[in-house]
Amino acid sequence: MTTPKVVLVVEDDPVIGPALAHRLRLEGYRPRLAETGAAALREARALRPDAVVSDIRLPDMSGEEVYLRLLADLGALPAFFMTAFGDVAQAVRLVRAGARDYLTKPLDVDRLVEALGAALASAPAAPSEGREPAGLGVSAAMRGVEAMLRKAARVDVPVVLTGETGVGKEVAARFLHAASARAGEPFVALNCAAVPRDLAESTLFGHERGAFTGAATRQSGLAERAGAGTLLLDEIAELAPELQAKLLRLVQERAFLPLGAPAERRFAARLVCATHADLAARVRAGSFREDLYYRLHVIPVEIPPLRRRVEDLPWLAERLLSEAVARFGLGARRLSPPAAAALADHDWPGNVRELRNRIERAVALAEGEEIGPDDLFPESQLERAAAAAAPMLGAAIQGATRLAVSDALARAGGNRAEAARLLGVSRTTLWKRMRELGLTGE
Ligand SMILES: Nc1ncnc2c1ncn2[C@@H]1O[C@H](COP(=O)(O)OP(=O)(O)OP(=O)(O)O)[C@@H](O)[C@H]1O
């Protein structure tokens, strides 16, 4: 059986949103409705939807902003926009940024369902039980990480993934999930740094109806939604102290208490944590509980930065390139040899996320089939232009200085002390400038 694809519907209209979600459910999708941009971003980070269908005007931000933030967080994914305003400029911008389609209201739902079906059929399928998960790299370092994760997948103990931002900690967590016996169960992720502090507890553990003002219905938390699958807590170092205590209970007793619930529930998922912070240092600084640290650190796995495994660059670039081409529905693209060489010269502070962003931008904007170094690193083109402009700027500054100095000397009747006073500089500075400019003061 295939797992239903998750479609995030972002719509604040109380009729259109639920109606669309209902239709998508009938079509065999797992829709998730968000009524604001902030809720959509939260849901997207936790659920990693397969596609997004969003209104362009939302109460708190534009659909465009939601999409660009989703792109940064999740990479490209099929996105469809709905608008009552037919704003062509925004449509063009969104399609350039990778959106699939732009539909005007009243919405032709059949057309949307058809386009969604086509987009999701061409998207790579989620790994399912028994299938070999996609590899993480070809370097010895990443082969080592894969071997470690495969071993960890066999036993149900907490894993902590560490590494710089964008190295692929979440990708590694998904690899672990796919390699484990839990592969057919949900994979649920929460970025602890992104969820507002007052919502963190109910997001993680859920709440009963009436548990707090505004809790109109019962809401299950991610600990419950992860079922017998895997729960990834990303940026674990940012978890508030009161939640650290509750997480300890989750790990130790495998139990959690939804807000306002009469009794604890059993935690059936596997816990994986990730962080780019030095957790041991946080323990020493007193901001992370030592007992939790030791509970979580049963299997620590470090994902090395991309600059320390350059052998992975061509492999990753190739993979991200074909993914971007398929997602944007474009024809073939390839990296020119100088572009491939430029990849190796860069030191990738943003790691694989930066590589993905550069490749997606290059695929979207390159004119022909071949992607050159300037498509990947447009800033170096600007730097070259600035360097070329620098001599011109220098000449302009020199010309202006010459005029000002000659004028001051003329007004001071050749008296250098007076000319320096008029210019607001010391006599030594004036003397230096005159020497540089070849002025004698005559
Ligand atoms: N081995 C890989 N193959 C393909 N894509 C990858 C790989 N590793 C990372 N990526 C891509 O790089 C981006 C960042 O990956 P991921 O979110 O897993 O990093 P992270 O270390 O969890 O980042 P952060 O510290 O910011 O949470 C994603 O778009 C992901 O798809």
UniProtKB/TrEMBL annotation:
<dbReference type="InterPro" id="IPR025944">
    <property type="entry name" value="Sigma_54_int_dom_CS"/>
</dbReference>
<keyword id="KW-0067">ATP-binding</keyword>
<keyword id="KW-0547">Nucleotide-binding</keyword>
<keyword id="KW-0804">Transcription</keyword>
<dbReference type="Pfam" id="PF00072">
    <property type="entry name" value="Response_reg"/>
</dbReference>
<feature type="domain" description="Response regulatory">
    <location>
        <begin position="6"/>
        <end position="120"/>
    </location>
</feature>
<dbReference type="InterPro" id="IPR002197">
    <property type="entry name" value="HTH_Fis"/>
</dbReference>
<keyword id="KW-0597">Phosphoprotein</keyword>
<dbReference type="InterPro" id="IPR027417">
    <property type="entry name" value="P-loop_NTPase"/>
</dbReference>
<keyword id="KW-0902">Two-component regulatory system</keyword>
<dbReference type="Pfam" id="PF02954">
    <property type="entry name" value="HTH_8"/>
</dbReference>
<dbReference type="InterPro" id="IPR001789">
    <property type="entry name" value="Sig_transdc_resp-reg_receiver"/>
</dbReference>
<dbReference type="Pfam" id="PF25601">
    <property type="entry name" value="AAA_lid_14"/>
</dbReference>
<keyword id="KW-0805">Transcription regulation</keyword>
<feature type="modified residue" description="4-aspartylphosphate">
    <location>
        <position position="55"/>
    </location>
</feature>
<dbReference type="InterPro" id="IPR002078">
    <property type="entry name" value="Sigma_54_int"/>
</dbReference>
<dbReference type="InterPro" id="IPR009057">
    <property type="entry name" value="Homeodomain-like_sf"/>
</dbReference>
<dbReference type="Pfam" id="PF00158">
    <property type="entry name" value="Sigma54_activat"/>
</dbReference>
<protein>
    <submittedName>
        <fullName>Sigma-54 dependent transcriptional regulator</fullName>
    </submittedName>
</protein>
<dbReference type="InterPro" id="IPR058031">
    <property type="entry name" value="AAA_lid_NorR"/>
</dbReference>
<feature type="domain" description="Sigma-54 factor interaction">
    <location>
        <begin position="135"/>
        <end position="364"/>
    </location>
</feature>
<dbReference type="InterPro" id="IPR003593">
    <property type="entry name" value="AAA+_ATPase"/>
</dbReference>
<dbReference type="InterPro" id="IPR011006">
    <property type="entry name" value="CheY-like_superfamily"/>
</dbReference>
